[in-house]
Write a structure and sequence with these properties.
The structure is a homodimer of 318-residue chains. With 318 residues, chain A is of the alpha/beta class. Chain A folds into two domains: 156 residues, Isopropylmalate Dehydrogenase (3-Layer(aba) Sandwich); 151 residues, Isopropylmalate Dehydrogenase (3-Layer(aba) Sandwich). Chain A has eleven helices and eleven strands. In chain A, the strands form two sheets. The first copy, chain A, has a six-stranded mixed beta sheet, sandwiched between helices. In chain A, α3 crosses α5, α6 crosses α7 and α6 packs antiparallel against α11. At the A-B interface, α8 and α9 of A face α8 and α9 of B.
Amino acid sequence: MKFAYDCQGGDRAPEAIVEGALEAEKKLGIVAYFYGSEEILKKMPNVARERIVDAIEEITQEESPAMAIRRKSKSAMVLALKDLRDGKVDGMISAGSTGALLAGGMFITGRIEGVERAALPILLNGTMILDVGANMDTTPEMLLSFGKMARAYMIAVQEVSEPRVALLNVGAEEGKGNRQTKEAFSLFQDAMPGFIGNAEARDVFSQAADIIVCDGFSGNILLKGMEGVIGFVQRGFQSVLASGAYAPDVAQTVVAAAKQAMGGLDYRRYGGAPLLGLKKPLIKAHGSSGPEAIFSASVSLQKMIDNNAIAIMEGEYR
Amino acid sequence: MKFAYDCQGGDRAPEAIVEGALEAEKKLGIVAYFYGSEEILKKMPNVARERIVDAIEEITQEESPAMAIRRKSKSAMVLALKDLRDGKVDGMISAGSTGALLAGGMFITGRIEGVERAALPILLNGTMILDVGANMDTTPEMLLSFGKMARAYMIAVQEVSEPRVALLNVGAEEGKGNRQTKEAFSLFQDAMPGFIGNAEARDVFSQAADIIVCDGFSGNILLKGMEGVIGFVQRGFQSVLASGAYAPDVAQTVVAAAKQAMGGLDYRRYGGAPLLGLKKPLIKAHGSSGPEAIFSASVSLQKMIDNNAIAIMEGEYR
């Protein structure tokens, strides 16, 4: 099985990406292809020189995603996406710009027939939430499509036999919410296997559902709001500790306990998330991924391929 | 100055409400009116019997808000709202059902002329976020109206001289977001004093804006998502401590540090939030308010009246 690694994407590229890829070669038996600056990559130990694909351009977080994909045809991301499309590799992992990856996924590798829009999920404490930012204005039908793609993925890759699907809403009862969620509710009742009704944002961590479907605007607000709280609490701990009210050894204990308590919130542990709706297996790893996150992403990618996740998704649209 | 206290609303009613009201009488020099069961209230020490207004019905969280207001005319909430409308009291505080209070505020006390919808804000770490649940489907014009009401309140009550107003969005740049936020952005540019552009959900705690405007659906998702994280972290701490990995005295220190670190997140400290857009001063206190939260709400209510917040808001619509 051949995996393309975008060695230009992410805050800790190329080192963390390469290290994670090498770990995946060793433990998963996959064959890694390294997309990035040949000059840098060839100096890194254990990187097979014949599997370096030289990229002389680079896509940054700042540029317009669609533009970047169109113009930077010699970037690691575009080169890898083309090899993915052409079957030279079986799957791809990138910690680069989410927008560019989505645009590239849509334009270069293409969508599953019948899928109108690709969606961006996250996996948090065992629950898949989508869309978290790819589609700002959605229809109830798009939400249904997101639910179906997520369901196929959860069955194939996360091995949840009968995923419980919920709609993100402001209250649990039917009839709650805005026009869109009310319309989606009846559509889901008719057409979504495993639909269990509405989920509130505070249920995201309680594993009350395996899949929570929302539009990309709400999903992004939810995700970033949670990040905001986590950051606030972390800063709070830092200032409590910096205040000198606690002896250094006690402070260390507090930090360790806080890390443990907040561990489940760290979505870097979950090995990234697939871009759903594309014809080819493509995992978006978190921008700050370290080697262990890239390795986890590789495990997910292997499962996605082994268990025919894409074929199962295609089946949903036939 | 006469304040109506809904002694039926909230998890800790009537004791916590009465205690907070008595504290306000003592420290703020206001005159409290106690709406609730006369039988219970007259047994409580220091409650002036001549200022008890007997309520023989009660509105619960479970019933339909509009229905409850219409049918339960002898509930504490409805009796107080009517006295507020008729000028028998100058302001009102309730920790009861938000939906019923909104419906009652709209139907009984009435809206400021020109205000299409009342809005429900929260004050979090110094920033007012609104709407957090009163209006599910909004227009850009409604969002502008929310911004204006919040601005008047922040000037009059929070004494922020030039409030910075932002739109809740998925990115800071202009052009981000869904149809609604894009349209609202240009409307705010034209008509909103102090508009500073978009704010991301993760900026909520960073005091980057004094007012963050959103529709009630997104605002509610944001708020409950944050509550979900806080609950998750709290449960995380509990299970870390219950694991026995830490000696009891160390565990106590950890709990104290966590409480300190998360203190700013506790919106009960902020003394509730006004229902904006109504003709009369009405503060919604958190459902789990204790005496100190009711006292804080009384401080806000007094400022709202002293500083003519309603008149300033009315001025925005002339």
